[in-house]
Amino acid sequence: MRKAIFFALVSGLLATSVSYADPGFYGNNRTAQVNRRWCVNPIGWLSELDGHFKIVEDKNPALGQNVDLKRDTVNLDKENAFGVNCSYQSSHRATIEFNSLKVKHKGNLGVARMVKGKNYAANAKYIIDNNIYDILLNYHLWRSMSSAGRENFYISGLFGVKVSDMDFDINGQTFAAGAPAANDSSSYSETLPTPYVGLEYGSFINKVFYLKAGVRYMGLNIRDYDGHHYDYNFKLSYRISGDDCSHDVLMDMGYRYVVYEIDGKGNNVKLRYKGPYLGFDLLF
């Protein structure tokens, strides 16, 4: 059912973007912006994670304890995350984008905690693996054009669907009254396709420097879950290709701050990812 909803929303976005098609717009507008239809953008993100999680058993809040990632865990280091963004500009106002990112963090409990009804001793290992996919329509609501036909800046509305496939695993020594210590493991996963809205601002500093900043927000109430998602992104792009190239190449330097909150069935997870990233835009 969730997949059906996701693909239905995706189809709607694609149909909307095609309806804005205006092939005559593209000409000799040599700027650092997307004067090409296609853009491929691989990125590497140095991600730092904090927040907390409480994962219970059988929807019973008493069968789980809150774990603060800063106070109650150790060895939670920054990790390199990798992703790729692809986009197609169907007109001077509309762009359809598909983004994917894999973020994986691991650490150890610094204190004993109950997770899913099991008492884990200190030093139990945990892994938080988040695979993020989203498809969106980026539509220019307002823009300023120069006399030469170059877009000086714009403000876009973002309308998308995000799928966060989150997996949590913990394994280590468990203990219980009257029983010997033993090694055990627990896992928790959740996948929810959710719509979101946002705003994006972009401007040209000069012919080779380009600035972009955006925010996305999602609020969700589905089945027994409440969820919120915030995504803040800032980047500066530098065009490294020459005017005589058949494509454009830009180098991106930016900073991203992402928050996920899921609350339901006795479980409570709040994860905050943040850090700088480096990437390249290939436009053709």
Describe the structure.
- This protein is mainly beta.
- It has one domain: Beta Barrel (Lipocalin), CATH 2.40.128.
- 6% of the residues lie in helices and 67% in strands.
- It contains one helix and 14 strands; from the N terminus they run αββββββββββββββ.
- It has one helix at 2-19, and strands spanning 38-54, 67-68, 73-74, 79-89, 94-109, 113-115, 118-120, 125-145, 151-176, 179-204, 209-222, 225-239, 248-264, 267-283.
- Strands 1-4-5-8-9-10-11-12-13-14 form a ten-stranded antiparallel beta barrel.
- A hairpin with a 4-residue loop joins strand 10 and strand 11 (209-222).
- It is elongated.
- The protein starts with a helix and ends with a strand.
Helix and strand pattern? HEEEEEEEEEEEEEE
Give the fraction of residues assigned to helices. Answer: under 10%
Name given to the CATH architecture: Beta Barrel
The neighbouring-strand order within the major sheet is 1-4-5-8-9-10-11-12-13-14
Q: Choose one word for the global shape.
A: elongated
Low-confidence stretches: 1-34
